[in-house]
Prior knowledge:
Region (Disordered): 1-40
Organism: Phytohabitans kaempferiae
Number of strands: 0
Distance between the termini: 33 Å
CATH architecture: Orthogonal Bundle
Largest sheet: none
Helix content: 40-55%
Number of helices: 7
Protein name: Tetracyclin repressor-like C-terminal domain-containing protein
Strand content: under 5%
Shape: globular
Radius of gyration: 17 Å
Amino acid sequence: MSSASTPNSGVSGWTIPLRDGIPGSRSANSPDRRLPRGRHDLPREFVARTQRELLQRSVAVAYGQPGRWSERMRRGLGTLLHILAAEPAFAALAVVEVFAAGPKALAGRRQLLASYVDFFAAAPRREGQPEVPRVAVEAVIAGVYGVIFDHVSTGRAAELPTRLPELSYVVLAPFIGPRAAAEASGLPKAG
């Protein structure tokens, strides 16, 4: 799959194929992906950490491809949405069930969300405008997470890639302005 994305396509290009899926997201309908019966030697925290790291790495690779900051952000967000849509069992575990998994899992969730702040370091500053405060970045991340949570918790993870234009707009607008964000997000032009 291509790493390129077109602004009006509504869907980002893939940068990391998911042929093997995310560890721990095995489908009951796929016998070749089932774990053998019985206890396993892998501690639960190891599996959860591996999943978070793979997700984080996939988004970082997509973001790291050449392009303007707005293109890179859209590509990274698109990769995140595609992974969660392609792996609904993983999405449910990572986004919804994490709240019941205990303090270590919640700490991992906080660490993952905090890591997304780094993607905003290269955000352009609009001339004559104040710097966007860190709390605004945290609010953008929390807002995107809220939309993802809503989709995953209601069994609509497969719809996440279709939300890329709107979520890209939310991510980009505070930094590049509403008009540029709408264009870079692939939203339809106002008529």
